[in-house]
Specification:
With 315 residues, the protein is α/β, with parallel strands linked by helices. Strands 1, 2, 5, 6, 7, 8 and 19 form a 7-stranded mixed beta sheet that branches. Strands 10-17-11-12-13 form a 5-stranded parallel beta sheet. A hairpin with a 5-residue loop joins strand 6 and strand 7. The protein is elongated. The protein starts with 6 loop residues before the first strand and ends with a helix. Bound molecules: flavin-adenine dinucleotide. The site of flavin-adenine dinucleotide (FAD) has 41 residues, from helix 1, strand 9 and helix 7.
Length: 315
């Protein structure tokens, strides 16, 4: 690695979802000259959804991809340097911090803000992908409202699935919960809540064969693996709640994470175990997972980074 190949930047932001762009806006306005790499999904998770109705400031709602273009424009207007590229490796063992881009060039940074988000896990059905955003969703809090008074289905058996089923049960007429085994993984308390909810119907030993509908979800076809029978259930919404995968693999060697790969931050801050490295958004949050909370923590990360640089005499 020759020295000529290394670009030096003040603050490097990895990821271009609500967390990354918000960090960029704050860092740029604090004259921290942030450089942001967008990664494989410029704009982040909201670029794969349609209507966003719960982000404050858009009283009529806004399409997810359009909203993220606005985030980007605002970051650019403030002076952030937004670039295509993927962080492929990091070396946080010494100062300055080092990040490799696209497996070809290294960048040195005084501070790094990790905003690489998380990816929802899907069943892998063609119909699930085709109808994503048209009745198929991985987020009950985000999309449940669109199915008020209607019948929906949810797949999953963990605590999150139970929580999301209960959330939907307060909005929807009936929630059909599809559970692969003859029991749930969710805690006893959550299971009891689900089983006692009058409008949640659990289908044990069942897998989703297909999501049915031409342009929007109209039904699902279930396969009961115990009785080897199939049945169709008419629903308007299909929620997949089988987990999320934080995009944190490249940081594993240096950054403390929980057993599922979520980055650990010091509570009330975005500080990681490495001074100068901060984490914001879904990559460090398995509880809320919302655009507004991601944006909020992106702001926190920029402020934490600014204070770090000042305290280290690097500002
Ligand atoms: C279908 C769907 C609908 C949703 N609807 C809503 C909604 O209506 N309202 C709401 O509030 N929330 C909604 N959410 C949740 C919301 O999208 C997330 O909470 C939010 O996007 C998280 O923001 P983030 O910035 O942490 O990360 P993400 O949006 O996940 O963005 C991560 C970014 O990191 C980049 N990245 C990853 N790895 C690398 C790397 N190695 N190098 C460089 N860049 C990298 C990606 O390219 C991406 O730009 C929805 C989510 C989904 C999946």
């Amino acid at each position: 690695m020759s020295n000529e190949a290394i670009e030096k930047v003040h603050v490097l932001i990895i990821g271009s979802g609500p967390a990354g762009y918000t960090a960029a806006i704050y860092a740029a306005r604090a004259n921290m000259k942030p450089v942001l790499y967008q990664g494989i999904q410029p704009g982040g998770q909201l670029t794969i959804t349609t209507e966003v109705e719960n982000y404050p400031g858009y009283p009529d709602g806004i399409q997810g991809p359009e909203m993220m273009i606005e985030f980007e424009k605002q970051a650019v207007r403030m002076g952030a340097d937004i670039r295509y590229g993927i962080a492929s490796k990091v070396d946080f063992s010494k100062r300055p911090l080092r990040v490799e881009i696209d497996e070809e060039k290294w960048i040195e940074a005084d501070s790094v803000i990790i905003c690489t988000g998380a990816s929802a896990k899907w069943l892998g059905l063609e119909s699930e992908q085709r109808l994503n955003g048209f009745g198929v969703s991985a987020c009950a809090v985000c999309d449940g409202f669109f199915f008020k008074g209607k019948e929906v289905a949810i797949v999953g058996a963990g605590d999150t699935a139970a929580e999301e089923a209960l959330y939907l049960s307060k909005l929807c007429s009936t929630v059909h919960m599809v559970v692969r085994k003859d029991q749930m993984r969710a805690s006893k308390v959550m299971q009891n809540r689900v089983l006692n909810a009058p409008n949640i119907k659990v289908y044990w030993n069942s897998v989703t064969d297909e999501v049915l509908g031409e342009h929007k979800v109209e039904a699902i076809r279930l396969h009961n693996t115990h009785t080897n029978t199939k049945q169709e259930i008419p629903v308007s919404g299909f929620f997949v709640a089988i987990g999320h995968e934080p995009n944190s693999g490249i940081f594993k060697e240096f950054i403390d994470m929980d057993e599922t790969g979520y980055i650990k931050t010091i509570p009330g801050t975005t500080k990681t175990n490495i001074p100068g490295v901060f984490a914001a958004g879904d990559v460090q949050d398995k509880n809320y997972r919302q655009a507004v909370t991601a944006a909020g923590s992106g702001c926190m990360a920029a402020l934490d980074s600014e204070r770090y640089l000042t305290s280290e005499g690097l500002a």
